[in-house]
Sequence to fold (249 residues):
Amino acid sequence: MRTPLIAGNWKMNGSTELVEAFGRAFADAALPAALKVAIFPPFPYLDAARRAFDGTPIRLGAQTLNPLHSGARTGEVSGSMLREFGVEYALVGHSERRQLYREGDREVCDRLLAALSAGMTPVLCVGETLEERDAGRTLDVVLRQVGFIMARLEPEQRTRVVIAYEPVWAIGTGRTATPEQAQEVMAAIRAYQAGYDRELAEGLCLLYGGSMNANNAAELLAQPDIDGGLVGGASLKVDDFLAICQSAG
Ligand code: PGA
Fold:
């Protein structure tokens, strides 16, 4: 049995006040017994979040990290620094990073390897644009993104990666993939992993991301290959995020 994971990607949003509100709300929230929860706040809030989330089920994630351990990389943050602040997860390959900061597959791979070597769980984000979907290229694009990374990992490293399928056209648009659309792609990702190892595929934690909210989460999470969610906008509202977590039981 795979344990569901609900991850909240705050992007460049949030405040100390929001961090504290999450800490209070999750301190005594009734949540499904087998559930992992993680919040990915902007870097400046990590320390406050670590304190506010102490004693709650919320684990910490980082939205990106540099491939290097340290050095002349102005503005960047390394995996070892994040580990010092108790960060357990790191997003890599988010479509905003791929598009706005021109991160290609090779760079995504370097960042993912850095997360692994720092002892964190990388959450590899993949997904097609609307143009690619309309051209019937969804599975090609997504499996190429997954395949590029998997081919460069050792078998043991493959077991430590979470994959988030986020159709680019569904991110921040209010337009969610239907449960069937999401399931089709996510089943294909699991089948791809089975090409390496059946046990790896069975254990793989697959998240759906793209306008997941308190109203559509249960239906998406009921799909056999959807093990959790990567939630953007709705992770900024305590009640909505709690409701999504509660629907993951
Ligand atoms: P959204 O963002 O839930 O606001 O669509 C998801 C994401 O970008 O991870």
Q: What stands out?
A: The chain has one domain: 5-246.
